[in-house]
Amino acid sequence: MEQRSKWGTNLGFLLAAIGSAVGLGNIWRFPYVAYENGGGAFLIPYFVALLTAGIPILMLEFALGHHREASAPKAFRHIDPKWEWLGWWAVLFVLFGISMYYIVIIGWCGNYMLFSLTNAWGDDPNAFFFTKFLQVPFDQAEQAPAGDQVWSLAGFRWPIAIAVSLIWLVNWAIAYGGVEKGIERAVKVMMPILFLITVTIIAWALTLEGAGKGIRHYVTPDFDKITDLKVWIAAYGQIFFSLSLGFGIMIAYSSYLSRNANIFKNSLIVGFSNSFYEVCAGFGVFSILGYMATRQNCDINEVVSDGIGLAFVAYPKAISILPGGRAFGFLFFLLLIIAGISSTISIIEAFTAAVLDKFSLSRKKVITTICVLGFLGSLLFTTNVGLLWLDIVDHFLNQYGLITVGIVEALVVGWLYRTDLLKAHIVANLGLSGTRHKLFNYVVLQLWMYCIRFVTPVALGIAIVHSLIREFATPYAGYPISGVIVLGVGWLLVTHIFAFGLSGLPWREQAEG
Ligand code: TRP
Questions:
Q1: Which domains does the chain possess?
Q2: Averaged over 136-150, what is the pLDDT?
Q3: Pocket of ligand 1, candidates 22, 102, 394: which has the most ligand atoms within 8 Å of its Cβ, to mutate?
Q4: How far is the CA of 419 from the centre of ligand 1 (A)?
Q5: pTM
């Protein structure tokens, strides 16, 4: 039997966990969510969400994985065999769902990194992206993809499929090396580069004409919004996705820590670093938007966007008019690629850890099989209608899958587990004594449990009910109902069936520990 892997150092673990958390969501999602939901005032619900759900759940996942030295299915099985499926479901739908299309987006970034060098999009990046690059059915009147043509399949987009195969190859090469020799080594190179590029891009953006105007829009607080329920839901949702919670990743990563690791401190470092990164990224993003608005003599509202629209339509416009834009574009897309790969590698590991905990198989074979299957799955999103499929799957897995895992996880651990064991485990490595020990036990850990038992399930529960109500009022974003059911609901159900299947298989000897 192979020995369980370990990180070489705590720093290696931190870099990997931060690498998992910092992803596309930090760069292209947070700034927009903040802007839409009250600008500077959004920081209030956002930090409340970080402190009452983000860091508590992160600490719970770290403590659970570390205490049991187990991946998600094994850790949940320990609480009660009935819940093993939850661990499988999380790692299944993230790997064979979220990562499959997330890698396709990284593949677009690969193409755009090269396009930047020649400004390949010319003067209409919108048309270029949708009709030339993706070749997705396009609604001329709306100047946007036509959602009702979700089944009009016309073939693969080869430049995308090729990029996707390369990105899977990189993921495979990193994971194949193992935890210490593969992932830890890779993040020790990738994370400093990520940091340097980020600093360069932000510093560059801040010097642009109009940067101040953009930043004012980003930070100007609109306190009226704080009383709006939607703003709070957005804050909890952003924290959850951005910190990679409910993916089973943090459980696996912390299970590789040395026995005397400080779980409390590690949770604070990872939680705050991720938020610090996204708040800073917002300054870069809005400086560029301010520059564009100034150059085009229009209002920020007209240039602002998020996600795909920001990276593949708004930014290319900026890259075309910016002095040194080509280098800027190259760096920006490289940044997205690095941030993306350090996230996808983490879910490959979370799934691998789960399989190796349960079955006696060779790590290398498991990694190769996962990467081949994942690559084949990614191809589904590299056709001309890939964008539409990706959009539907993403909506369902994020709004329902992740949030469900978060709620059930908080309830199962908070109410069914011997949380005194978990608390004692955290305290044991802190080296506190006397009053400080008491204070930590009775105040910090008490508050922590309160957040896990009440605040997180209630906050996430409200979010999911809110999404469901909207879903029934109008099918998601005007897609035909067949698309929503097959790709959205279907995906949730099929991964569920696999999760039950995997949890029904027998454990190898001595693995149940
Ligand atoms: N936290 C990442 C972000 O902000 C998302 C993410 C984490 C992810 N782990 C992942 C996406 C694994 C795909 C696969 O973007």
A1: 10-512 (1.20.1740)
A2: 86
A3: 102
A4: 28
A5: 0.94
